[in-house]
Amino acid sequence: MALLEIDDLHVGFPAGGRMVEVVRGLTLRLDAGQALGLVGESGSGKSQTALAVMSLLRKPLRVTRGSIRLEGQELVGAPEATLRHFRGGAMSIVFQDAMAGLNPVFPIGTQLMDVLAAHRGLTGRAARAVAVEALEMVGIREPAARLGHYPHQFSGGMRQRVLIAMAIACRPKLLIADEPTTALDVTVQAQIVELLHELRQKLGLALLFITHNLDLMAEICDRAIVLYGGRMMEEAPIGPLFEAPLHPYGRALLDCVPRLADEPGALHPIEGAAPTPGRLGEACPFAPRCGLALPRCAEEAPPELAFGPRRAACWRLVP
Amino acid sequence: MAALLARLFGSLGVLVAVSLVLFALIHANPVSPARVVLGNDASEEDIAEFNAERGLDRPVAAQYLAWAGAALRGEFGRSLVDDTAITRTIAQTMPVTLELVLWAFLVALAVALPLGIVSALYEDRWVDHLARALATIGVSIPGFWLGLMLIAWGAVGLGWFPAGGYVSWEMGAWPHLRAMVLPALALGLYYVAIISRMTRSAMGDVMLAEHVRVSRAMGLGRGRLMVYTLRNALPPVITVAAMSFGYMFGWALIVEQVFTLPGMSRALLNAIFRRDYIMILDIVLIITAIFLLANLIADALHRLVDPRVAR
Ligand SMILES: Nc1ncnc2c1ncn2[C@@H]1O[C@H](COP(=O)(O)OP(=O)(O)O)[C@@H](O)[C@H]1O
Ligand SMILES: [Mg+2]
Asked: Which of A46, A251, B126, B210 could form a disulfide with A100 if both were Cys (CB 3.0 to 4.6 A apart)?
């Protein structure tokens, strides 16, 4: 049994008498201690997948179909008390907006220790000690002195470290990182990715790393799922994915990343615009922008095909 | 701390400015107190004598300095009309007004805060709709009319409360408080509406904030989440509450008339009818000072609640 099992996940919201789906039939497995990347252009449904796992989808959005299991325990439709127990406990998340992620009117020590109190029943001196340890682990210097400081006394990168400390304080088995570096300076980005890598090894975390930056993902993940229009396009170990993507969209995505070998100024953006949810019929969502599209691609969703450790959904691959 | 001291000095400056403007306005008024007191038939000599007795013949600047010097010592001067000590009049009437406002303020907070919080938590549910209806009614009913309605309901109809009049503490705590219930409600309802709406919208904003999502993602319990949200929502509520406290002194004058309470309204109205300028000046300045004090307290509370303001 994998640590995280998602089967046929659909996330949508009602509009004009029908369901507009932003995640459509996603299936994935993540084993303990592994790092899985979730890549795709903005709007492809990565964040809503993460929020669905945490059961934190915001109002009109909800899971309309499918199953999400953590250590075999079903999370879809689980009672709030159970979910509260899992959130920040066995599974945790780090979001993109580190600047706004901490409560501005409480010292970071209070915020850290409240998480410890909620899940490990720690209070007073014991909580303090663990909080200091957690801050140390994410590379904050003089952690004991920093406990009493307020978020506005930290830089963006430091706030993200504090948020990571909160997320790992109760030793989760799964850590979701939803574009944790996108809002940060480029120099800080690498440090945060490095930190996540380190923590994963030290604590044996499974990592669901969400990004639209393929290079960052390659640094930290073992495997990646390419998402487009709420659908899985392709899943593969990092090496094979970068060497030879199976799906035309995977190919296009790789071509977007500027290589050192390229002549200056050579960019290869994907032609056309990302799809709008709701406008997607049953077709392959990438068909309108795909140079290799067959007539069939615009009519019928391709089946998911397995190729050893890899999966892909494309009519071109159907024998 | 330094910032708070600066605010304090700023407030004192405002008080001085207000007193100067009031003084200037009073002396620009063509109807002199002597005419009001002595009547239209008084001779020029009588008027001159009246003015000389009260120092009204001196230059305006000298009068102002004399008044300000006395006021600093807590001496608010004597009535131009009947020569009573104004300090005494204020000492008799001010506690009644202050008590009325304090009760109304407490009622407003005690109802508005829970109401605002609950309607934010249960947005668009029946509690929220009820609160909104109450708020709409609260802001649209004029205070004096509400006072009359309350008298008809609580005094005439149910007979639980007196229809008006003041009962001093010496007559017993319960009779005293009972006489304050309807006036406090009449004065407070408008501010229940104002403060509960502000609480609801501030809570609603904070509930959508990223840090609240993080707190939920960390599995914090309901109680902690509530504390985390509420403390962030407080600053605008404190501001509105402080403003309300100040404005209440204005509306209290009307409520006192409806319920025939012997507060400052009577002293002020008398002073206005009789052109008792110094008395008007003193009362208006005291109300201004209370308004400024409420804002200073709000400022201090802001600093207590939000560490970002403290620097
Ligand atoms: N509250 C919402 N209501 C309706 N649609 C939403 C809402 N939030 C996000 N979406 C839509 O869901 C789709 C997927 O969003 P998201 O998962 O955030 O993408 P990303 O891959 O960039 O993280 C987007 O097209 C977005 O417009
Ligand atoms: Mg996103």
From this structure: B210
